[in-house]
Amino acid sequence: MEDIYKTITFPSEAILFKEKNSKFFGYSFPIQTEAEVKPIIDSLRKQHPHAVHYCYAYQIGTDTSIYRANDDGEPSNTAGMPIYGQIQSFGITNVLLVVVRIFGGTKLGVGGLISAYRIAAQMTLESAAIIEKTIDIHFLMTFDYKNINKVMRVIKEKSVEIVSQKMEMNCEIECRTRKKNAEMIFDIFNTMFEVEVKRL
């Protein structure tokens, strides 16, 4: 079972690609939700007030992914899709890739635009720190304090990571494990006497 995905951990430094006096600034950002996109674009508009196009693409999700490509006024499919094509080519997700264009006075034509946005996007991702992460499944266990030892023994034996815990008369432990181990771990806790477990 595939439970690894590639993403970036922090925003990359801006890269600059020039084509016939037009400047293309490339940026990549790690994101988890669509709501993060607009504030990032707004901050780039402030950073580059002379730019005419703030084109971008993003992909979010692991099992099922959502994506969007935006040409921001460039001819249809000359900017957003070439940018998105690089996200696919690098096989990454949970990422926003933005290319800001400052017009240099010479029109590039459809082919020239597609090529320029693709190259700027490619250079941006080549400069980003791409890492592999595991797809993790979260569980919540609830049990009486008297059962703490048997729960903790499994957590330790199976190298399950504790996310948060509340140790009182009624205990709650949220933990996570790699997707490929999730069924096995869930079954172990599920068959335990006096321990309730649910997927989050």
Summarize the structure.
The chain has 200 residues and is of the alpha+beta class.
Structural class: alpha+beta
Distance between the termini: 20 Å
- Record the strand order, biggest sheet: 2-3-6-4-5
How large, in whole angstroms, is the Cα Rg?
A: 23 Å
Main beta sheet: strand number and arrangement? 5 strands, antiparallel
Bulk shape:
elongated
Helix content range? 25-40%
- Strand fraction band? 35-45%
SS summary, helix count: 5
Mean pLDDT: 93
Low-confidence stretches: none
Order of helices and strands: EEEHEEHEHEEHEEHE
Tell me how many strands there are.
Answer: 11
Question: Care to describe what's here?
Answer:
The structure is a single chain. The chain has 200 residues and is an alpha+beta fold. 32% of the residues lie in helices and 37% in strands. The protein has 5 helices and 11 strands; from the N terminus they run E-E-E-H-E-E-H-E-H-E-E-H-E-E-H-E. The strands form 3 sheets. A 5-stranded antiparallel sheet has the order 2-3-6-4-5, with helices on both faces. A hairpin with a 2-residue loop joins strand 2 and strand 3. The longest helix has 19 residues, at 109-127. It is elongated, with a radius of gyration of 23 Å. The two termini are 20 Å apart.
